[in-house]
Amino acid sequence: MAAKILIMDSNVRLLTAMSERLSHLGYEVATATRVHDAVLKGIVIPPDLLVCDVMMPELNGWEVKRLVVQIPSLAEIPVLFLGSHHTLPIEFYDPSAGLVETLKKPVSTDALGPVVASLLARQVARKRLMGHALKGSLPITDASLVDLCHVLARRSATGVLRLVASERSAELVWSAGALVDATADRMRGDEAVYAAFEMPATDLSATVEPPPAVPPQQHVTRPLPDLLAEAIRRTRAVSDPERSQPEEQRRVERDEDFLARLASTGLIRRTAASTP
Q1: 86: buried, middle or exposed (CB in 10 Å: 19+, 13-18, 0-12)?
Q2: Which of 100, 119, 233, 265 is paired with 226 by a 20 to 30 Å CA distance?
Q3: Is the pLDDT of residue 227 over 50?
Q4: Residues 15-26, buried b or exposed e (16+ Cβ, 10 A)?
């Protein structure tokens, strides 16, 4: 059975392009240009994934997410946000928020398909992990480390999550669903968590071992949502160096590009900055 995708965007042209692309890929697609229409359609036929523009006329994306979690049939549906920013509010890295991802605009319809497929696969993997025994080897195919941390937190796990990939390893110690300690690459605590997220996912294996005989000390200092948000920011900054620049610096560079384009059209004349 084809996965059902609900797309919500006030830009009719983009909405049509995304709908045609996903339909071509074999998905069953419904669309809406207004929030209340999307909610009604989602209640009647719950989708497997919601694709949502961050800046809808009635509500922004974060408000939309808070709305749908109040509706039982929509609460667990993963959401793909489309917006000008690549980051999410820290609150949406909380395990209770479910699976949430972002795709930066302008959105390429060619890029949309792989992201949608990945999110649908991750949702299946998360459900599989929610029902799997929290001991021994874990079935993490298609699941990210974020998904794994969410599952352990939601299931109030106690034990040691051991991660191994490409001759690297890390250990995350959990106590009643809280991440209390971590070691990786001769690091400990918060920095060890970030190092674990840098491990290659292609050959990553995960096992849950019994908790240490001696109760672990608290070396992880930040709450889980903060840790996940920072870990994702760092990993994405590596793949996209622009993201590691301060927002103000990026804004100035965009202004300079805009002024340069205007000057090239002859609409404005730029003068050299005076020196003191």
Answers
A1: middle
A2: 119
A3: yes
A4: bebbbebbeebe
Give span(s): CATH 3.40.50.2300, the chain.
Answer: 4-127
Q: What are phi and psi for residue 154, nearest 5 degrees?
A: -70, -30
Pairing of β 28-32 and β 168-175: unpaired
Rounded Cα–Cα distance for residues 12 and 23 (Å):
16
Q: What is the DSSP string of 87-110?
A: ---GGGGSGGG-SEEEEESSPPHH
The top-scoring range by mean pLDDT among 7-16, 19-28, 82-91, 263-272 is 19-28
Q: How far apart are CA 184 and CA 171, in angstroms?
A: 7
| pLDDT for residue 274 | 40
How far is the C-alpha of 137 from the C-alpha of 134, rounded, in Å? 8
* Residues 9 and 30 sit within 8 Å (Cβ to Cβ): no
Of all residues in the chain, the percent with pLDDT exceeding 90 is 55
CA distances (Å), 104 to each of 18, 204, 207, 219, in order?
14, 27, 34, 35
| Nearest Cα residue to 196 out of 227, 217, 155, 219 | 227
Query: pTM here?
Result: 0.81
The per-residue pLDDT for 245 is 46
4-127 architecture in CATH?
3-Layer(aba) Sandwich (3.40)
For residue 201, the model assigns a pLDDT of 83
What tokens appear for 25 in the block? Answer: 């890929």
* Paired residues of 60 in beta bridges: 55
DSSP H/E element including 143: none
Say yes or no to pLDDT of 203 above 90: no
